[in-house]
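Please fill in the sequence for the structure shown.

STRUCTURE ENCODING:
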């Protein structure tokens, strides 16, 4: 296995975002590219990402590989990549070698770990509401809601999308019309944990647009599209206040 990535910043950003959710993962390397699917320890959220093989300037792979890695260790190495650096990945025995090529060639070796977790596939669901919104605006609203509560409610109609949160005394609310954002929706309402959403919105680092998919009291999917690179999260709903 010999893989070379000329601009590793995108990979570094994605690994940093995912490490907020999980610490140990199976990195799958196939002829199509590098992918990862993982569930957080509380079994509330799932993350998926894929970087296609054609984004690498060198992609030599004899057989498919599944590498067990500690993301904190991988993140620490990737942060050593500077603008203009190239990253070379190779496998030897029970380690993965990461070589950073810039003014000085630097080599790091990370031990591979055994992970018992069963490999999962990202679910494919039909959603009643699909919202495409500016990532910065979505991040601001999530941060606003986190000031007053630990959960927020998404409400979508054919021409309106609302995110609101309420605590014992205080509340926050943002409303978007179909003239401001792209809305493909029936009527949907669902409530979600802000602790997880605050982790997800860090995907704004890699994408200026966020795609929110949800239905009534159903797990949501949030996508951060970046060309052919995929970063997606799934989050289970919280029980709505009117049901408690």
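FILLED IN BY: designer on duty
SEQUENCE:
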């Amino acid at each position: 296995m010999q893989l070379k990535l000329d601009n590793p910043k995108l990979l570094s950003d994605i690994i940093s975002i995912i490490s907020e959710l999980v610490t140990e993962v199976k990195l799958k390397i196939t002829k199509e590219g590098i992918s990862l699917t993982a569930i957080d320890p509380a079994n509330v959220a799932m993350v998926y990402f894929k970087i296609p093989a054609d984004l690498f300037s060198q992609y030599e792979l004899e057989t498919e590989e599944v590498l067990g890695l500690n993301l904190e260790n991988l993140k620490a190495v990737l942060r050593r990549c500077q603008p203009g650096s190239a990253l070379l990945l190779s496998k030897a025995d029970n380690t993965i070698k990461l070589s950073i090529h810039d003014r000085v060639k630097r080599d790091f070796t990370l031990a591979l770990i055994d992970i018992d977790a069963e490999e999962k596939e990202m679910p494919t669901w039909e959603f009643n509401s699909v919202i495409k919104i500016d990532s910065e605006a979505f991040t601001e609203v999530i941060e606003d809601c986190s000031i007053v509560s630990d959960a927020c409610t998404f409400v979508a109609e054919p021409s309106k999308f609302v995110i609101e949160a309420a605590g014992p005394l205080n509340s926050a609310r943002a409303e978007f019309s179909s003239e401001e954002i792209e809305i493909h929706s029936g009527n949907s309402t669902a409530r979600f944990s802000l602790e997880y959403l605050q982790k997800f919105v860090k995907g704004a680092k890699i994408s200026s647009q966020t795609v929110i998919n949800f239905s009534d009291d159903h797990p949501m999917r949030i996508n951060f599209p970046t060309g052919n690179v995929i970063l997606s999260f799934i989050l289970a709903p919280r029980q709505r206040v009117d049901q408690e």
